[in-house]
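Title: Comparing notes on inverse folding

I've been comparing how different people in this forum approach sequence design from structure. To keep things fair, I'm posting one structure and asking everyone to reply with a full sequence. Here's the target:
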């Protein structure tokens, strides 16, 4: 695996390519998801299935950034993930998110168009939920964590300086906005 870059910022063309790739990993899955809408839903749906597999396709908003960051950005930059902290974060957050869904979905969520999902039911109190609900927590937390690791490891000052407290005055300035009792 290549060593992390020790020189300054990449060339402007590389920076532009990275920005384009970042935009593409959001725009492409969003476009695919929106293309699944065959007839727009109104207060009175015009179709029994206005968004075939819409919820399933929308998970690409997390899956594409996961693949791009884990498969391309992290290896190409030679960035190393602190494995223990990374996996412990997922081991804690994913089950907590799933537990929230398992317990509270019966009161907060309604799935009138089950054909917007794969149709695979997952257990929850009160009534089952679509499997996509649990995949949402796994991919959502994984995508956000990978983005956080990538940006933090890339040396983006607003993140790394606060986390490592290399510049405690920034933390103090930030904390001054938090109201005290």
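Reply #1:
Here's my take.
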């Amino acid at each position: 695996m290549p060593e992390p870059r020790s020189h300054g910022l990449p060339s402007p063309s590389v920076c532009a390519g990275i920005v384009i790739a970042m935009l593409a990993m959001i725009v492409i899955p969003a476009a695919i998801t929106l293309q699944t809408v065959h007839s727009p839903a109104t207060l009175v749906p015009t179709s029994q299935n206005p968004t075939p597999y819409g919820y399933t396709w929308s998970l690409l908003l997390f899956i594409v950034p996961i693949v791009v960051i884990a498969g391309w950005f992290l290896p190409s930059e030679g960035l190393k993930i602190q494995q223990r902290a990374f996996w412990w974060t997922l081991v804690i957050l994913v089950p907590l998110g799933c537990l929230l869904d398992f317990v509270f979905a019966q009161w907060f969520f309604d799935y009138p168009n089950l054909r917007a999902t794969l149709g695979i039911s997952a257990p929850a109190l009160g009534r089952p939920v679509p499997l996509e609900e649990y995949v949402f927590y796994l991919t959502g937390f994984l995508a956000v964590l990978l983005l956080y690791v990538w940006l933090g490891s890339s040396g983006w000052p607003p993140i790394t300086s606060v986390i490592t407290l290399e510049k405690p005055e920034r933390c103090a300035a930030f904390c001054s906005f938090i109201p005290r009792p």
